[in-house]
Write a structure and sequence with these properties.
Elements lengths: L20 E2 L6 H8 L4 E6 L5 E6 L2 E3 L4 E7 L3 H12 L6 E9 L2 E12 L2 H15 L9 E14 L1
Keywords: Oxidoreductase
Organism: Streptomyces atriruber
Protein name: Pyridoxamine 5'-phosphate oxidase family protein
Length: about 160
């Protein structure tokens, strides 16, 4: 009988890594504070072939409304991906996305359903929030739209 190769022990709930889920209804102050710091974030959308598209973005987080906002150019690939996914989705408008930021061992991810908004008042509010977080006014852009993410999950270690 030939010797068999050793096998790794099966992962069990007792040995699996702990979840870093954050309660969206009551996020800890350290999490909120981290999202107020001036940081470049990433947005992950899905291409039509299902592969991830990750780009740097500025994000604002509104914990009371459970919404994250990103300003974007109407013709950007991220906007095109969100519109295409929303059109193809059977469960209604919107596309599953994630935004993330990190510094050293601190990290925070927000997941949710993104929709494209074109209302000038909503875009102006997003610009105001961007200026508050990033301490600079976004440059004028007549092709600007708002990516609004209705949050469904928060993760992190802050």
């Amino acid at each position: 009988m030939a010797p068999t190769a050793p096998t790794a022990p099966a992962s069990t709930p007792a040995t699996a890594p702990a979840s870093r889920r954050v309660d969206l209804s009551d996020p800890p102050e350290s999490y909120l504070s981290f999202w107020r710091e001036r940081r470049v974030c990433t947005l992950t959308t899905l291409r039509p072939d299902g592969t991830p598209h990750v780009v740097p973005v500025g994000v604002t987080y509104d914990p009371e409304a459970k919404v994250a906002r990103i300003l974007a150019r109407r013709t950007s690939r991220k906007v095109v991906h969100i519109l295409a996914a929303a059109e193809a989705a059977a469960e209604g408008p919107g596309a599953r996305v994630a935004v993330c930021q990190f510094e050293g061992r601190r990290w925070a991810t927000l997941e949710g359903v993104a929709e494209i908004r074109t209302d000038p008042a909503e875009i102006a509010e997003a610009e105001r929030r961007y200026e508050e977080r990033y301490e600079r006014r976004p440059s004028p852009n007549p092709d600007r739209v708002l990516i609004e993410i209705r949050l469904t999950k928060a993760l992190g270690k802050t």
